[in-house]
Amino acid sequence: MSNSSYRQIINDGLWHNNPALVQILGLCPLLAVTNTVINALGLGLATTVTLVASNGTVSLIRRWVRPEIRIPVFVLIIASIVTTIELLMNAFFHELYLILGIFIPLIVTNCNIMARAESFASKNPLLPSLTDGLFMGLGFTGVLLVLGALRESLGFGTLLAHADLMFGDLGKTMTVTLWENYRGYLLAVLPPGAFLGLGLIIALKNVIDRRQARKAETLLAPAGETAAA
Amino acid sequence: MNTLIRQMLISATLLGLFAVLGTGMVALTHEATAERIAANNRARLLRSLHLLVTPDMHDNDLINDMITVTDPEWLGTREPVRVWRVRKQGKPVAVIINSVAPDGYNGRIELLVAIRADGTLLGVRVVSHQETPGLGDAIDASKSNWIHEFDNRSLNNPDKKGWKVKRDGGIFDQFTGATISPRAVVKAVYKTLVYFEKHHNELFQRPTRPLEDIQHE
Q1: Which residues from chain B sit within 8 angstroms of residue A95, using beta carbons?
Q2: For residue range A78-124, what is the model confidence (pLDDT) as tens digits?
Q3: How many CB pairs under 8 A join A and B?
Q4: Which of A46, A124, B35, B99 has the fewest CB atoms within 10 Å around its CB?
Q5: From the centroid of its chain, how far is CA A86?
Q6: How many angstroms separate the CA atoms of B16 and B12, rounded?
Q7: pTM, entire model
């Protein structure tokens, strides 16, 4: 694999084929746990670890698994990985595990993970698959974080509240209070706030893409460059 | 035909192999983390009990000095309810009853109600609820001081008529825009007090149940 194709993989995961903004996959956890930055970070990292581990495993065994049983095998692998992560989080990040609750086991049903195993890892060697898993995961985490920051700042007037759940005592100093005596904005905390927030973020991405495409068109018109999908 | 059967066998073996590998990985992790998870659960439970009972108020093994009782009418749930006994030098100090307010705005509200041996309230905490953030969730001690209105109350203080939210003619505050959640909690705390009065001796005297019952949720 050349450097340029790695760049392509990274670019796809973080931006052009971002799981949350372009593929619109894994919306259920995305909308449910993004009411604070720390919740978003917790679920994002757990999803990223799952993606890297499942992509890696699927890539390693891609030559042995016959096409007719590949889907059940992928499901088995993903379910085992997620259960392992769930147990580890319960043991080492107990409070965060309690907050994220059902959404940790539900990572199994995040279609994004299956989609990467099926469409990328089962056709590519180990290293590109790991890269793809990592950056798809980070792209997903990034959107979770932006949405989490948006909702937490509007909803509670803070950022990184309860950071000690993830970073221990160090985290207690990380909380930023944006507005003193903020009364809270209920809409941002409740599910509609997640839908509106995600809609705004997707719209913003489209605006940026379109602007860039227009710029590229005017600059590179003779080279026949086409706009990204 | 033979090749077909061979392929089926290979597929089945592979599928079985991955099932064994996956299960093995989960089993190993479970084995490695089980003790720590149990310790986490115990620590969390003790932390929430210690919100109501300070460590110097008891010298018994609070977590294990527990019984379960079932009384759908007065404790708000058909399921067994946990009761911890607080004792010092063998004398009963208080009980903590894990009762339920079944009629919250969004379903059940789980409470810890700590009652001194003389029937006065040591305090109440909401352990879990799904009330609306910003409105009904003020019943949560981390959101407002409302839950402290119960401190030191008893069946006679106020009298039966007073055990309601103000809108219903009682003495407890409701929240702006949310009456249902505080109403449910007030009712559940009152019923728990009645239950305690009826079963006072039994609650302190019944022998504890085995350790495995504290595995919960």
Answers
A1: 44
A2: 999 999 999 998 998 888 888 787 788 888 888 888 889 999 999 99
A3: 63
A4: B35
A5: 17
A6: 6
A7: 0.74
